[in-house]
Amino acid sequence: MTFPFNPSLGTILVWAEITGPTGKRTIVALSLDTGASTTSINLDCPIRVGYDPTLFPANVAMTTGSGVINVPRFPVAELASLGQARCNFPVLAHTLPPTAVVEGLLGLDFLQGQLLTLDFVKGEITLTPATGPTP
Amino acid sequence: MSEVMTRSEIEAQFPDEWILVIDPETGPDLRVRSGVLAAHSKSRDEVYRIAIAIKPSRSAVWYNGNPVPVGTALLL
Fold this sequence. Notes:
Chain A has helices spanning 44-48, 108-111; strands at residues 2-4, 13-19, 25-32, 40-41, 60-64, 67-71, 73-81, 84-93, 104-106, 114-119, 124-129. By secondary structure, chain A is mainly β. A 6-stranded mixed barrel of chain A has the order 2-3-9-4-8-7. A 3-stranded antiparallel beta sheet of chain A has the order 1-11-10, with no helix packed on it. In chain A, strands 5-6 form a two-stranded antiparallel sheet. The longest helix of chain A is centred in the middle third of the chain and has 5 residues, at 44-48. Chain A is globular and about 45 Å long. Chain B is built from 2 helices and 4 strands. Chain B has helices at residues 7-13, 44-54, and strands at residues 4-6, 17-26, 32-41, 58-64. Chain B has a 4-stranded antiparallel beta sheet with strand order 1-3-2-4. Chain B is globular, with a radius of gyration of 13 Å. Chain B starts with a strand and ends in a 12-residue tail after the last strand.
C-alpha cells in the first residue's frame, strides 16, 4: 500500500494510531526515522490511551544526540501505521520538545522484515512485507 | 465545541497551533479527515492536559504548522 508524504517538509511525517490496554486509541504524527533503532512516542500518548506510567520504570538506556537517558518502555496493544499493524509492540516513552512538532519517531523496529520505498520525487511511501528471506 | 469540522476547516482557522480532535474520521493513511474539535492551543502541554482530562475513546493530536520553519533545523 502506498501513502503520500510531503518531501519538502524537512521531515517524513507519517500518521500512526496507538491503541491502549482498554481499546482507547489516539492518532499521532510521527517522524519516520531510519536512524532510530526503536520507535518512541511522547509520554502523554500512552497516558492518553490508558497506560499508567508509574507501572513502567525508566529502565531502558536510550542514546540520543545529546546524551544517554533512561526511559520507560510501554508494550502498546497495537501500533498501526503505513497500512500495517503491530500487536503488543514495545515503544519507548520519550517526550520530544514541542518544537519537534511530532509526537515521536517511527523507528527501524517497525520496519524490520519489510521493504520500505521512499520516493522523494512522487512523494510516496510504500511499506510491504519482504517476499524473500530477511537477515 | 462539539461541531464536526473538516481538517481543512480546522487547519485554516488555527494555524501554528496544536490541535486535539475527538472521534476523528480518517482515511487509510490515518490522516484525519474530520472530527470534533476539542482543543487548540499554541501550547502543546495545554492540549495534552485537555486530552488526558476528557478521556476520549478515540482522539487525534497534531501540530498544524510547518515542522521545519525557515531558519531552523530538525535533528531528532
